[in-house]
Amino acid sequence: MTTQFRTLGKTGPTVSSPGLGLMGMSDLYGPADEAESTATIHAALDAGVTLFDTGDFYGMGHNELLLRDALRARPGARDDAVISVKFGALRDPDGGWSGYDARPAAVKNFAAYSLRRLGTDHIDIYRPARLDPAVPIEDTVGAIAELVEAGHVRHIGLSEVGAETLRRAAAVHPISDLQIEYSLLSRGIEQEVLPAARELGIGITAYGVLSRGLLSGHWQPTRALANDFRAISPRFQPGNVEHNLALVESLRAIATAKDATVAQVAIAWVAAQGEDIVPLVGARTRSRLTESLAATTLTLTDSDLATISEAIPADAAAGTRYATPLMADLDSER
């Protein structure tokens, strides 16, 4: 067993820490090998991982089907798995993006399709991928609450919302967790969002803990980015990427002293920020998964944490975490 377990907030499920984020197995990070993706999910199950994060728009349904087939190949795996699904992002046949829809009728429509693709009678955690500015959060959460009452959903989560939205949502129905980017290079939640979540008893599932590969210790600035989201990411642009990788090199010295890898230190740092935080790792191969899960054996002392913070201070990253048009979709950044 290489995983630990944490409970998401006051009302959420107990899940493995870290959990496995599946997006890159279907979309946005260039080609992925489906057989290796399935093998990686199976390796995660073997290691005790229970939290699997997907979205109905990852590969336009492909990601949910991939998870369904991987779980079906392991009898009893669905009973142990906690499936977290994001919904609401609209795609076109060319893979483009067309906004968000979180109207109550759309919520139930998306859920119906996800349940069928996943081959399950319930979704463990269901969450809108972004706040729909045209729909009050109370209406969206109320619709999911009706799915909870009907037994189709077990817990309600949110993603990338700010403190005010978090409070409004929690007034309608208990929220298990907020999924939001959090890493050594993305620490914005520490100002308002994380304190609000803790005040409300809402857990954090942290994605982007390796800052989309920058903190992996493996990134090369000359890497080709065809069909890859990072091609438009400000932090990967010339000038910015060199600055950010220099920060990573300062972390490498710390990792070497701990007999660990850069990725393991970065993951362990997120986990060390509180028992209410569950890192999500986006490993697409068994080797990367093995490396990521070994972060659970790494203990960072107060001295280690201070040294890391000195090496990579808050706001040290060059470039915003998303391109400007995508930043506009983030309620958490308002």
How do you describe this structure in short?
By secondary structure, the chain is an alpha/beta fold. The protein is 37% helix and 17% strand.
Q: Please bin the fraction of helical residues.
A: 25-40%
Major sheet attributes: 8 strands, parallel, barrel
Give the DSSP E fraction (strand runs of 2 or more residues).
15-25%
Q: Helix/strand-derived class? A: alpha/beta
Low-confidence stretches: none
The end-to-end distance, rounded to whole angstroms, is 40 Å
How confident overall, as mean pLDDT? 95
> Biggest sheet, strands in spatial order?
3-4-5-8-9-10-11-12
The CATH superfamily label reads: NADP-dependent oxidoreductase domain
In the CATH hierarchy, the third-tier topology is known as TIM Barrel
If you compute it from the alpha carbons, what radius of gyration comes out, rounded to the nearest whole angstrom? 19 Å
CATH architecture: Alpha-Beta Barrel
Shape field: globular
Oligomeric nature of the chains: single chain
CATH class: Alpha Beta
Number of separate domains = 1
Describe the protein's architecture and organization.
There is one protein chain. This protein is of the alpha/beta class. It has one domain (4-333): TIM Barrel, CATH 3.20.20. Helix content is 37%, strand content 17%. It has twelve helices and twelve strands. The chain has helices at 34-46, 62-72, 77-80, 104-118, 137-150, 163-170, 193-200, 240-257, 262-271, 286-293, 302-311, 324-327, and strands spanning 4-7, 14-17, 19-21, 51-55, 82-87, 89-91, 97-100, 123-128, 153-159, 177-181, 203-207, 277-281. The protein has an eight-stranded parallel barrel, surrounded by five helices. It has a two-stranded antiparallel ribbon with strand order 1-2. Helix 6 (163-170) links the parallel strand 9 and strand 10. Helix 6 packs parallel to helix 7 (193-200), helix 8 crosses helix 9 (262-271) and helix 8 runs antiparallel to helix 11. The longest helix is centred in the last third of the chain and has 18 residues, at 240-257. It is globular, with a radius of gyration of 19 Å. The mean pLDDT is 95.
